[in-house]
Amino acid sequence: MNQVKSIETEMYNIATEFITKRYPTGWGGVAVIHTDDGKFLTSVSIETANSSVDLCIEVGAMCEAHKFNSCVSHCLCVVRDDENSPFKVLSPCGVCQERLRFWGTDVKVGVTTPDNCLKFVTLENLQPYHWTNAYPFETLEHYSKD
Asked: Can you give the pTM of this predicted structure?
């Protein structure tokens, strides 16, 4: 349990330090993914002139995990409104939840809480009624870890 907590705390520290350096003023956001082989992968939101083609903050780190053929164990997204605002944890959107399920339902994700505390839950707990429950797990090849 202590190891898990230290992974989560380390992810939060990586995120907040990265935001402060990458976005010294104004809005800032970063995602941190931890993999089962011990990597911490970070990504930021891509900025485009047309916001309809933007990608979620987590996507770059997910692609890195795929590139290294690493299994994602944790995902965290942290933002702040400006350099004077507190950091906030954002729960993954529905699309990112679908992307993260590639690595299974036991992936832990940081979630938004009313008191802004650092909390992680598994995708299984975040989505207890996910559509894949209608099918045997082994028939969902693209959701396997192998």
From this structure: 0.88
